[in-house]
Amino acid sequence: MPRPSGFSFGPYSPPMRRLFILLIFSASAWAQDPVELLRRQFPAATLGPLNQQAFCWQDSSGASGAYRGDATQRLASVTKLFTTLLALEAYRPEKTWTTTVYRLGTRVHIAGGMDPWFEEEKIFALIQALKDQGVTRITELTFDGAFVFTDTAQSQHTPATFPLVQTALARYFTANGAFGATANQRRAAVLAFQKEEGIDFPLPTSGIATTRITPGHTNPLLNVPGVIVQRHTSRTLVTILKAMNIMSKNMVANMLWEQSRRVKDPATTIAGSYKFHNGSGLPVISGQTRLDNTATCQTILTMLSTLESKIQARGLEINDVVGVGTDFGSYRERFLNDLNLKESIAAKTGTLKHTSSLAGWIEGENPVRFVILNHTTASTQARAWQDRFLSAWQNGTSRPRGYIRSSVYPVEGAFFD
Q: What's the CA gap between 311 and 395, in Å, rounded?
């Protein structure tokens, strides 16, 4: 028998028809209302009580919603979006930092310029540059307080200090010039980073034999006759912000926060309810006391709007300073359940003990800003749920950002200018 034209419930009775219609409209309502979707689908048995979570959103039409939008929560590395905003308020996007190296015979002094991103990639490049100039031995390597080098990821807020930098340098400038296990591990990681970035800069296979590494507040080689002075210029602020957000660089974030807040008061830039102890989102731990950066979901949502406006005012796009789902780093294993979503989202992730957070933008017919703050110890499961939740909410309506990734490697060509 031919099927009747139009929509038909076939043999179902009128009551069944009414139930079917109700289910259709209910499913449609859930898809349109992400807060209701959250209430119905949140896996409390895995992630913890729903009443300890927070979620809020707003789309380009002005529609918005929230669940516990005014509750104070830890935000972890979502803090770095606040740091991004403050840095763009304080400095032009093209700002760079200069590190100056003085060399006289077998003595070397590093005069820092508060470069916020001086890590192992640059220390390898510095060693290679010195070797290329014939340096085979250093009797004394000195550095000042404006030079901050670290090669170790932090699990809690760690201020930049002379001992921190001295210890890190000693892993590369060793007594016999050989790299130890840590330096070789870092070298392998840098090579992998270069491969991912599609570049091939030479890396030394050993360090430079160094007798003594000494911190100090003065430059012992300043204005000494015969001294060779060379300079290294960092990547621009825009590139540093992008790298900070992609790879969640904590020391970078805190240095940018500290420098920026001396130029621009956060209170005049960031509206809402929040309390920050640093620019990274890492906890400040002293004995049994732990202090975390906290904010309400609505405050973060307001910050996203302000940051978006500042990015546009600086002649940039969100993709220029915030990680996109197709970037590496924090995003490598995210949104694999929905590749359309992966190409449409620009966001910052955050993970700490008891915290999994995600905040950013989704491109689509009605672009949205969103914030998810999960209070949970099940971080891996929380990230997977966030991906599924956003996919169910967007339901195929997101669209690719048209983003083409560019290199954020911290050294461009030769180390010295």
A: 28
E strand or H helix at 262, and its extent? helix 250-263
> CA 412, 113, 148, 78 torsion: positive or negative?
negative
Tokens 């060693």 locate to 127
The answer for 414, left when phi > 0, alpha when psi is -120 to 50, beta otherwise, is beta
* Span 57-66, pLDDT tens digits: 999 999 999 9
Instruction: Find, among 226, 368, 273, the residue nearest to 75 by Cα.
Output: 273
pTM for this predicted structure: 0.91
Contact 401, 326 (CB under 8 A): no
Task: Please count the other Cβ atoms lying within 10 Å of the Cβ belonging to residue 395.
Answer: 12
Distances (CA, A) of 371 to 55, 58, 297, 356: 6, 10, 6, 11
Alpha helices by DSSP H, 279-331: 297-313, 318-321
Q: How far is CA 10 from CA 1, 18, 26, 48, in A?
A: 12, 13, 21, 43
**Percentage of the chain surpassing pLDDT 90?**
88
Task: Give, as one character, the DSSP assignment of residue 223.
Answer: T
How big is the CA angle at 324 (ends 116 and 400), to the nearest 5 degrees?
A: 155
Phi and psi for 404 in degrees, rounded to 5?
A: -115, 120
